[in-house]
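Task 17 of the worksheet. Students: predict the tertiary structure of the chain below and write it out as C-alpha cells. Keep your answer in the requested format; marks are given for formatting as well as content.
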Amino acid sequence: METMNEVVISVEGLHKTYGETVAVEDISFEVKEGEIFGLLGPNGAGKTTTVECLQGVRYPDRGKLRVLGFDPASPR
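Model answer:
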C-alpha cells in the first residue's frame, strides 16, 4: 500500500497587507497529498487573500509559498 505524504501545498510565514490594513499575518501550514483541507474564519480573516496568493493572483509581502513544488508568484 502506498502512503500519500507528499506535501502539495506549503505556506510559511505568509504576510499580506493592503496599505495599512493587514489582511494575512504570518500564517503557516502544509497540505499533504490526499488530505482534505479548508480555510475557516470570519469575514475579513484573510481566507480569500490566502487562496489568491496560492493562485498567483496576488503577491505576498513576505513568506514562502509552494504549490506542487512551484512558487505561484514566479513568472510562468
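Marker's comment: The domain at 7-67 is CATH 3.40.50.300 (Rossmann fold). The chain has one domain: 7-67.
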